[in-house]
Design goal:
With 404 residues, the protein is α/β, with parallel strands linked by helices. 43% of the residues lie in helices and 12% in strands.
């Protein structure tokens, strides 16, 4: 580690530590705990720049020379941008999380990935790998997890050496985003075939979904047996929106298990099927995994009100996504104050120009019901802001003024 790289990181880590120790961040931690306990003092407001990060920070903005240290630098600068520029309710803590180094095999031998992209930030498609469900099932293999303990230790040591006396460096991170299954199925057989086969070959779809349920459960078991499961109950990004701070999840055994974690599932890709078909072909295969988690979240971009009959049976369900395509009034009546109403406003108003009147109208519809709900407003799927990252702070200003 060069003196130059170390000094860059220590300077950034010091700024992060100062912010983490501020009264504002201590208050946010307490507010998120109340919010996740369904005792929210106010609507929580968060921004997730997602695809727009490349317009905020890119390679030319980084000063470290070493690739690993550049990745640390990038994450520290992200924290500073959130706190200093966006100024939403995303908390900054004194922890710096270093993920374990793992890899997963693919479902078919000789195939690493069947995704083809037009360009780095452009559209993509999956090369269909299974035409006949009966024959294809015989070729599938459970994914295998490989853990590189030595590289994981080296990465952790590098962060500790650079700024371990300033921030609390630890191993922490997740290995998947969702236990929804359907996205993985579609990778192999295609969206159209999946939907058609629900009518033409329902038995085949049931067998395929059951295989993927068992495969996902096996993957979970592998990570747990390797001792790689870490808590997500602090400044962790949860599900399709929200922050993990809670006193209701903690390590209950000698090692962290799934009952100590937030869980999450969705099925955005099947938005075109009926609620009854969701209840037959999708939900029964998600439920066994969600039953293993301590608290659960459901939904992303899909409207879930038509699926509520099944979703409400998830044990320890706490957070529901209310997407731009949801009927907010119906969701209000379904959720009330019994669940977190995780509203995702329409991102197009900030991604293509800045439509302030539309932003206000969109937010006002949600906030007019806020006294009857446990509300969080999560601006996400912002895959571009056309090179104007200042739009994020302006959106926060509008949301906060309306909330107040």
């Amino acid at each position: 580690m060069t003196n130059h790289d170390r000094e860059v990181l220590r300077n950034l880590a010091g700024q992060v530590a100062d912010i983490a120790a501020s009264d504002r961040m201590q208050k946010l931690q307490a507010e998120w705990k109340l919010h996740n306990a369904l005792q929210s003092p106010r609507p929580m407001i968060c921004v997730s720049p997602e695809g727009s990060w490349v317009e905020i920070l890119n390679e030319k903005d980084l000063e470290c020379q070493d690739p690993l240290l550049r990745s640390f630098e990038y994450r520290l600068r992200q924290k500073l941008f959130w706190a200093n520029e966006i100024q939403d309710d995303t908390p900054v803590s004194s922890y710096f999380n270093v993920p374990y180094v793992t890899t997963q095999s693919f479902y078919l031998d000789g195939v690493d990935n069947n995704e083809t992209r037009v360009e780095a930030r452009g559209s993509f498609h999956y090369e269909k790998l299974i035409d006949d469900l009966e024959e294809g099932l015989g070729k599938l293999k459970f994914r295998r997890v490989s853990y590189d303990a030595e590289q994981s230790a080296r990465n952790l040591a590098a962060a500790q050496e650079a700024f371990g006396d300033i921030l609390q460096v630890r191993h922490r991170g997740i290995f998947w985003w969702t236990m929804g299954i359907t996205a993985e199925v579609i990778k192999l057989i295609g969206l159209e075939d999946m939907m058609v086969d629900m009518m033409d070959d329902p038995e085949g779809i049931h067998k395929l979904m059951a295989w993927f349920r068992d495969e996902h459960m096996n993957l979970m078991d592998q990570y747990e047996k390797l001792g790689l499961i870490t808590l997500n109950n602090e400044d962790d990004l949860i599900a399709s929106g929200g922050i993990g701070y809670t006193d209701q999840l903690s390590q209950t055994g000698e090692t962290v298990g799934y009952r100590d974690l937030w869980g999450f599932a969705e099925s955005q890709e099947t938005v075109g099927i009926s609620p009854q078909m969701f209840g037959e072909f999708v939900f029964p295969y998600q439920l066994p995994m969600l039953e293993r988690f301590g608290l659960n979240c459901y939904g992303c971009c899909e409207p879930v009100e038509g699926r509520w009959k099944w979703i409400k049976t998830i044990p320890r369900l706490r957070r529901l996504s209310v997407s731009p395509w949801s009927n907010q009034r119906i969701m209000k009546d379904l959720l009330g104050k019994n669940y977190i109403f995780s509203r995702k406003p329409n991102p197009s108003y900030i991604c293509s120009g800045f439509a302030e009147d539309a932003i206000r109208q969109d937010l006002q519809e949600t906030l007019s019901m806020a006294s009857e709900l446990q509300v969080e407003i999560i601006l996400k799927d912002t895959h571009t802001v056309e090179g104007h990252p200042e739009r994020f702070h302006r959106w926060v200003e509008i949301a906060r003024s309306l909330a107040e």
